[in-house]
Amino acid sequence: MGRQLLLDKVNVAGINTYDVYRKEGGYRSVEKALKKMTPEEVLEEVKTSGLRGRGGAGFPTGMKWSFIAKPEGVPRFLLCNADESEPGTFKDRYLMEKIPHLLVEGMVTSSYALGANQGYIYIRGEYMYVLRILEKAIAEAYQNGWLGKNILGSGYDFDLAVTCGAGAYICGEETALIESLEGERGNPRIKPPFPAVKGLWQNPTVVNNVETIAAVVPIINDGGAEYAKIGIGRSTGTKLISASGNINKPGVFEIEMNITVEEFIYSDQYCGGIKNGKKLKACVPGGSSVPILPHYLVCKTAAGQDRLMSYESLADGGFATGSMLGSGGFVVYDEDQCIVRNTWNFTRFYHHESCGQCSPCREGTGWMEKVLHRLEYGHGKMEDIDLLWDIQRKIEGNTICPLGDAAAWPVAAAIRHFREEFEWHVNEPVRCLEKNYGLVAEKVFEPVTA
Amino acid sequence: MPLVTIDGKQIEVPEGTTILNAARMIGGDVVPPAMCYYSSLKGSGGKCRTCLVEVSKGSEKDPRPMPKLVASCSTTVMDGMEVKNKTSDRTLDARKGVVEFLLINHPLDCPICDQAGECDLQNLAFEHGMEHSRYEFERREFDKIDIGEYIKLHMTRCILCYRCVYTADQLTEKREHGIIKRGDQSEISTYIQNALDNDFIGNVIDVCPVGALTDKTFRFKSRVWYTKPMDAHRNCSKCSGNAVVWMIGNDIARVTARKDQYGEVKEFICNECRFEKKEMSDWTIEGPRHINRHSVISANKYETPIPEHTTLLNKA
Question: Which of A40, A99, A431, B104 is most buried, by the most CB atoms less than 10 A from its CB?
Answer without folding.
Answer: A99
